Amino acid sequence: MIFSVEPRRGLAVILLLFVLVAGIYSVTTPAFEAPDEVWHMAFVQHLASGQGLPVSAPQTTALWRQQGVQSPLYYLAAAGLTAWVATFRESAVDQSDFPTLYARANPHAAIGQPDAVANRNYLIHHDTDRSGPGESWPWRGSILALHLVRFFSILLGALTIWATYQTLALIVGAQPALLGAALVAFIPQFVFISAAASNDNAINALAALVLWRVVHLVAAPVGQTTALRLKPFVILGILLGLALLTKLSSLGLVAVTGLALLIVAWRRRSGRTLIAGGLALAAPAVAISGWWFGRNWLLYRDPLAWNIWQANILLRVAQADWRTILGEMQSLERSFWGLFGWLNLPYPTWVYTALRGLEIVIGLGLLLALWQARAARRKPSAVAPNRPATFLPSLLPSFLLMLWLALLIFSWLRFMVIAPAAQGRYFFPAAPTLGLLLLMGLRGLHGRLGWLVASGLFLLSALTPFALIAPAYRPPPSIGAANLAALQVNLGEVFAIEGVAATSGQVQPGDVATVTVRWRALAPNARDYSIFIHLVSNDGLTVAQTDTMPGAGLLPTSQWTPGQTYTEAYQVHIPATTYTPDQAHWAVGLYDHATGQRLPVMLMVPGADSRVAADSLIFGEVALVPQAGAAPNAMDIAFLDHITLVGYSLSSRLLLPGEPLTVTLYWQARGPVASDYTTFVHLLGPPAPNPGGSLTQGSDWQTFGGHDGVPQPATRAWAAGDIITDTHTLAVSAQARPGVYQLEIGLYTQPDFDRLSLVSAPGAEGADRLLMGGLRVVSR
Predict the structure, then answer these.
(1) What are the pLDDT digits (tens) for 440-481?
(2) To the nearest whole percent, how much of the chain has pLDDT over 70?
(3) How far apart (Å, rounded) are the C-alpha atoms in residues 159 and 182?
């Protein structure tokens, strides 16, 4: 790449390459397949449709969700852009179709699950207009608006890089600053976010501009006799006000700019500088952004609207401690370099291994650069002549950059305590600081190593859309159907099942079973149906299930043509808590995820060992056998404080209202237990009848019986390796209606009722209970 060129020309090349690669990301990434993009665009559409600024409420059902209380500058600019283009092509940028697109959210989307192989798409994508707005070229309506906003974001990303260069040039000089800007520009995740509709791009750009002007202010040579110029303070105030009107994470910039003002006043030994400069800085900042905080106070009694924000985001079940946060560092690391889609599209492991090696190199280089700087100040001859001397020629500007990064880290840690937020994009507002750290780490080892790394990052970023992103959103091809048991099953006169195969014989808790189905479209259809593959016990309880959109989420049924066939294999994970021994069978069908209504099923040509119910094809016989272990229903569910649930037993799984249920838990200590805990078993059921057998747990489920007790011996007396039997007998509430119920199991301390968290609970980080089912309440 660029090793020694005229700085302006080199910067132009970097910006051109960035815009080109980011443009490829923007057209390769399907609509709304970036974190929160659909909700950001909902805010834009709300403004573009003339509805004014959103007024939010706790647990809002509005399309913009939690984004409705975000500072509005990015959305106002994006809405203005789409409205301006609409004056030339009004019909093309008409966003009235946005609610229809929004309603196509994939109900089975594997958001934040990097190990997922299916349903990685947030949206159910339609190439054609056969059943609603299509997404293919030429773009129209909200899809065109999305791409316009994405291009606007790319320009903001380019502005971030430009400001990063300008900032670094003031600290380390023009040539090294080019490298620092390039290292930031070609971080794949930065390119990906820059090509998405997100207010992250506005705060990245404005924070970088603020830092540029801060460094310009404190690095300028001044003296007590130098005339005070207020223009730099006014410019800085304008940029700060714009940043405050963009995102709450900019609040730390107030501290950075305030400290910069103090530094300048101290260097000038001038109280007038402090007062006049402070007024020149604060006046435009308050004029630009103050109205927004005042509006928040009037609407929400909180100038930051943080109370409404928290009421509309996914919070942890329990606040995270340092161990939980440390356990999520890998996600932070990966999402800093590159974790695409909705944090569910990772690089191969070897790429992250190489990037971790780069982190180690940078870390060593930083230590070496700091040693060189210290040695150069003490004795300039101590630095080898073929090494760069130091990249800290001005300590104060560098300190201010580091302070900004430290404030971002502090605010991120506070957020991590209450919500899972291990995303590297939260640190891109510190792009100049990141560029300085990367530059120091690489140049500290060897002058040209940095350009080799920048070239490698560029190649990785350029290849990612073609090698990773685009293939992830293509539906997998239909697999061979030679080993399927032939039959003909009609589903609602619209689809047919022509063959099935499944794991039969014996399965154990923790196993993965495979079910293969051959589908055929019989008639045109406008709905996107979900597939259900359930393993159902002979008592009618759903033991395990996989619900999915066809084609790993990428082949919606509304896009099928009559006569089209598709054969797909589905993985069904048998929960570790599954009750054994038991007998079960497979049930397969289609349902409308919006209503829950299943398509009726009719058996046209029977196959071996198959039959139909009203709404599902039933086939196969499966024996659920226990795992080997010292306790019934052996398992390994680890809680904190060295406590593991290793098994359980039930007196019955068919329950009568008013009758007792005995649940026996088997605990084992992994080591010394620090506290005495009370254990609990609660019977949870839906507030409305749930006769269908689904194990889906809603947040509004109610308790229909329970028992809390102190195990004997007390938990602090447990010896490592011993199995403790803990029996709970509870009465099923007389108000329990027929349907499927679950058990809630856990431990807590008294008198504070502080529950003990699970060691690992993917998708429910910080969970302080184990849910397992199912049990059925039947009528007397």
Answers:
(1) 898 765 667 889 999 999 999 999 999 999 999 999 999 987
(2) 92
(3) 13
Using alpha carbons, select from 92, 190, 188, 102 the residue that is nearest to residue 147: 92
CA nearest to 319, candidates 716, 652, 757:
757
Q: How far apart are the first and last CA of the chain?
A: 78
Q: How far apart are CA 772 and CA 444, in angstroms?
A: 55
Residue 601 CB-density burial (10 A; 0-12 exposed, 13-18 middle, 19+ buried):
buried
Residue 467: partners with Cβ closer than 8 Å, 6 or more residues away: none
**Average pLDDT, stretch 587-599?**
95
The Cα–Cα gap between 427 and 436 comes to 14
Q: Is the pLDDT of residue 61 over 50?
A: yes
CA dihedral of 199, 202, 207, 213, whole degrees rounded to 10? -160
What 3-state DSSP class applies to 760? coil
State CA 545 to chain mean position distance.
24
pLDDT of residue 701: 82
Over the stretch 644-702, which tens digit does the pLDDT of each residue have? 999 999 999 999 999 999 999 999 999 999 999 999 999 999 876 444 444 444 456 89
Residue 383, pLDDT > 70, answer no
String of DSSP letters for 589-621: EEEETTT-PBPPEEEEE--TTEEE-SS-EEEEE
pTM: 0.89
- Cα–Cα dist 54/61, whole Å: 12
- Is residue 617 within 8 Å of 739, Cβ to Cβ? no
State both tokens at 420.
């899972």
Q: How far is CA 342 from each of CA 92, 110, 112, 332, rounded to the nearest angstrom?
A: 28, 8, 6, 14
Question: Strand, helix or coil at 503?
Answer: coil
Name the residue among 141, 145, 106 with its Cα closest to residue 123: 106
Q: What is the mean pLDDT of the chain?
A: 89
Pairing of strands 723-731, 660-669: antiparallel
Q: How many residues does the chain have?
A: 780
| Predicted confidence (pLDDT) per residue in 553-566, tens digit | 999 999 999 999 99
Q: What are the structure tokens assigned to 762, written together?
A: 């993917």
Q: What tens digit of pLDDT does each residue of 75-103 get?
A: 999 999 988 776 555 555 678 889 999 99
Give the pLDDT confidence score for residue 4 in this predicted structure: 63
User: Cα–Cα distance between 497 and 461 in angstroms, integer?
Assistant: 43
Structural contact between residues 169 and 153, judged by C-beta atoms closer than 8 angstroms: no
How many other CB atoms are found less than 10 A from the CB of residue 329?
A: 10
pLDDT, residue 273, reads: 86
CA dihedral 34, 36, 41, 44 (to 10 degrees): -140
Under DSSP, the state recorded for 466 is I
662: helix, coil or strand? strand
Give me the amino acid identity at 56.
S
Rounded Cα distance between 432 and 166, Å, is 9
DSSP-assigned letters across all residues of 519-572: EEE-S-----EEEEEEEEETTS-EEEEEEE-TGGGTS-GGG--TT-EEEEEEEE
Angle separating helix axes 7-28 and 449-464, nearest 10 degrees: 30
Q: Please tell me the distance from the alpha carbon of residue 185 to that of residue 16, in angstroms, as a whole number.
A: 11
DSSP 123: B
Q: Is the pLDDT score of 385 beyond 80?
A: no
